[in-house]
Amino acid sequence: MTEAVNIWDDVPDWGGIGARRLARPGAGLGASIWEIHPGGDYWGHFHHASDEILIVLRGRPTIGTPEGTRQLDEGDVVPLPRGPQGDRTITNDTAEVVRVLMISTNIDPDVAEYPGSAKVGIWIGDHGRFFRVNDAVEHAGPE
Length: 143
Prior knowledge:
Helices cover 0% and strands 48% of the residues. The chain contains no helices and twelve strands. The strands form two sheets. It has a seven-stranded antiparallel β-sheet with strand order 6-5-8-3-10-11-12, with no helix packed on it. The chain has a five-stranded antiparallel β-sheet with strand order 1-2-9-4-7, with no helix packed on it.
């Protein structure tokens, strides 16, 4: 019999937020559980190829979208479509840990924009590459 593994063992700490990937078999449906500590935030971004769904498992996170900011309750489900209309920030303004399940269509390749930091992320397979928008150059053919 295989022993159970607790997904919260060795959760990385990225400054008040950490995540555990549950499933991402390459392109196709994937999921991660994010743990957001009090005062932590899940950086604002949106995807150009992948749709996502956020499900609140624990706590009361605050979500900011182009439609405004609101506090969510346990069990709330929020669709996050691809494109700028899916832009979101998720913060924990409470004294308790928040856990959210993020389910994604994991389109490969994918591009994400991070408007608050003026960065762009490009994913090909499991490899992410990040660039500053201000470093963009015009494409004029090979150099």
